[in-house]
């Protein structure tokens, strides 16, 4: 039986606020930690040398990428962002000049002649080569969407998935909700609108005026909300079959998917209990995935 969306003030779909730590190749999800850049270079007699490579982790937002390029090239903050108008990036028309979603996460070689425009162009070219491969293009077409829409879904999948094994199910939840005319209600889109990463979303957060507020707006957000990797893209164009409409990561390694709203409420209650148990003293907040009557 098709389920209607519960009142928006009574449920949060997820609780993901993905942060990645890149230092030794490890990924730490759901932990508020600083995200250092991994530079591959050698110090010279005059001090630290310019890095030979720049690593962009999966899921980083465009703003994070711009800051990383500025630091890697030893440029004043804001230089890379300002260079966008001169970069002539090969973006799809739907992007309207915004490279979010197309700054592909990978390792990029840097030289003494590297410029922000060159680095950004390399990222976009890598994204185009990856996203325009025949299997991905065919998968997007099979699901009645264009590549840009697939990248947008992949960016949500990247942000919302606790593990790679969750990605396909998260993508299926997105499709199921879109097909039923339900708002996505993804906390990751709220985080993007507020330029933050957090596990906690308040009722006030869900009422913000933003095209990225997927509690108030129907359909996909207007752009990707980060730069997804190839695994997230594969999940977005070929999700497994399932009737799931809700999910919550109760604890690391325990993400629960269901089509039953009452079961989801029970899962949410466990999540809230775990959050309250681990919360440090401070101002009370309403965690994402909270159900209130």
Q: Care to describe what's here?
A:
The chain has helices spanning 62-72, 79-82, 84-87, 116-131, 134-142, 147-160, 167-179, 187-193, 230-237, 261-278, and strands at residues 53-55, 107-109, 246-251, 254-258. The chain has one domain (1-293). The protein is mainly α. The two termini are 24 Å apart. The chain has 10 helices and 4 strands, in the order βαααβααααααββα. The chain has a two-stranded antiparallel sheet with strand order 1-2. Strands 3-4 form a two-stranded antiparallel sheet. Mean pLDDT is 83; it is low at 1-12, 14-47 and 281-293.
What's a concise summary of this model?
The protein is mainly alpha-helical and 293 residues long. The chain has ten helices and four strands; from the N terminus they run E-H-H-H-E-H-H-H-H-H-H-E-E-H.
Which structural category do the helix and sheet elements fall into? Answer: mainly alpha
Overall number of strands: 4
Element string (H = helix, E = strand): EHHHEHHHHHHEEH
The proportion of strand residues reads 5-15%
Rounded mean pLDDT is 83
Q: What ranges have pLDDT less than 50 throughout 5 or more consecutive residues?
A: 1-12, 14-47, 281-293
Distance between the termini: 24 Å
Main β-sheet description = 2 strands, antiparallel
- Helical percent range? 25-40%
- Strand line-up of the largest beta sheet: 1-2
Number of helices: 10
Overall tally of domains = 1
Gyration radius over CA: 20 Å
General form: globular
């Amino acid at each position: 039986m098709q389920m209607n969306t519960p009142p928006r003030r009574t449920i949060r779909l997820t609780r993901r606020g993905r942060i990645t730590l890149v230092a030794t190749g490890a990924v730490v999800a759901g932990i508020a930690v600083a995200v250092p850049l991994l530079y591959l270079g050698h110090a010279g007699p005059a001090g630290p040398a310019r890095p030979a490579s720049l690593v962009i982790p999966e899921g980083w937002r465009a703003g994070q990428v711009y800051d990383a390029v500025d630091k890697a090239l030893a440029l004043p903050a804001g230089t890379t962002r300002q260079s966008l108008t001169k970069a002539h990036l090969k973006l799809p028309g739907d992007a309207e000049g915004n490279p979010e979603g197309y700054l592909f996460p990978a390792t990029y070689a840097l030289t003494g002649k590297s410029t922000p425009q060159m680095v950004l162009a390399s990222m976009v070219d890598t994204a185009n080569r990856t996203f325009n491969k025949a299997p991905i293009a065919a998968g997007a077409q099979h699901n009645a969407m264009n590549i840009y829409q697939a990248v947008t879904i992949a960016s949500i999948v990247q942000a919302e998935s606790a593990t790679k094994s969750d990605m396909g199910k998260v993508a299926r939840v997105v499709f199921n909700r879109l097909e039923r005319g339900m708002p996505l209600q993804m906390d990751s889109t709220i985080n993007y609108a507020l330029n933050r990463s957090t596990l906690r979303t308040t009722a006030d957060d869900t009422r913000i005026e933003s095209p990225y507020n997927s509690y108030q707006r129907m359909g996909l957000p207007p752009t990707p909300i980060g730069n997804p990797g190839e695994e997230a893209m594969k999940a977005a164009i070929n999700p497994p079959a399932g009737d799931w409409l809700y999910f919550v990561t109760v604890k690391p390694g325990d993400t629960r998917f269901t089509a039953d709203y009452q079961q989801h409420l029970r899962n949410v209650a466990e999540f809230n209990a775990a959050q309250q148990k681990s919360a440090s003293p401070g101002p009370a907040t309403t965690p994402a995935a909270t159900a209130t009557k």
